[in-house]
Amino acid sequence: MASSKIVKLTKKPFRPHVATLITLVILIYVVFIFVTYVSKKHVSIYEVNKTKISDNSSITGVAVRDETVYRTKQDGFINFFHADTSKVAKNEVIYTIDSNNEISELLKKVESKEVSNINNIANMRELIDDYYNDQKPSSYDDISSFKYELENMVFEQSRSNLYSDFNKMMKSGSIKSEFTKVKTNKSGIVSYSIDGMEDLTVESVSSETFESVAAPNKNQLRSSEKVEKGTAVYKLVNSQRWSIVIPITEEIYNSIKDKKSIRVTIKKDGVSFNASTEFLIHGDARFVSLSTSRFMGKYLNDRYIDVQLNLNAADGLKIPKTSIITKELSVIPEQYITTAGDNDFDSKGVILASTGKFTKISNYSVDDGKYYVEKSLIAPGENILNPKTANSYTVSETIKVKGVYCVNSGYCQFKKIESVYENNEYIIISENTKGGIANFDHIVVNPDQISENDFIQ
User: Fold this and answer.
1) What is d(CA 204, CA 369) in angstroms, rounded to the nearest whole number?
2) Whole-model pTM?
């Protein structure tokens, strides 16, 4: 019988692969770093910058003026003697009318030859440049208005002395045609454009008034064609005082309801002026009338005008509202503040009555003769001495002030701020706050993630 040999197997000791071990260590390290980063409080830093912030509301308004439309009392051809938007006096000849158009032919012979002088060419170039810079190709009304303004400039330049020359011809007896001279019955500013809204008053403006904003019904009256009796031929604006009435929301109303005047800017050319306010309610709609005696002639032929209300504006240091914290500080009268000595004038502090020793104050702010100091340095109830009279004073007053954490030195320092304007996201603060922050300082955006005197890593 063959003998059998039993071999006992033994387990080999575990010897991890070096590469596997290194990979595992790296993986554990990465997980640790990730968990640490996620659980760590993250502090965001903001660089303070000087800027201007404002709330400007752009609204379309309707112009209301004291306007009178004049109609011809007979058929015929009309020849005008005054340019559009020019001033005319009472009893001044505004136009002539004749039945056969002979006056027009005579006037061509006496027209001034000043159209091509340097000043007139410069004026035309300025008008063309303004149109080129502001025009919108999709707006036919802009093109039509530009054409009319250009024709009016030529008319004004070519007929500057027209009636004077025409009057000489009448006196010499060289004019044989029958015609009628029409004079103004009052003084005013003449316009040859009507839109059917000349009877509009501030009180009659309603929501329906703005239904034709997109397509205003403007009719240019000056024509070389024969007109019939009763045709509108010109209008006079009888007062320099005019108004722009705009619809306003409740939010705008609340921001201007206590203002007797506000700053208004005409958007198409940037002209600004102060206008007095009058508030109106028609049905469910609220309006404000903006009245002035300036620039009426400049916008005489505009019925709907885009304006910008310059409601709130401020210059200063811009910071996010999330960076603001409130802190309670001790209030110390200025006469109890002293310095450490001749060699350290910048080190301010107080003298404690209990010890007679100088205690330095840091990170303070000053306003109206009072120093605002950390309660941890000078707490309410502390007795301090007047350095000149030795009279004692017990600190009792505290005040809650708004501020931010400044981190220019690498750790958090509370700095007082003074607000001059704010909106939903940002606040403008004064750059003249003593002991406050300055342009390009760095502040904490989320102060709830950190405490005062903490270091920024």
Assistant:
1) 56
2) 0.56
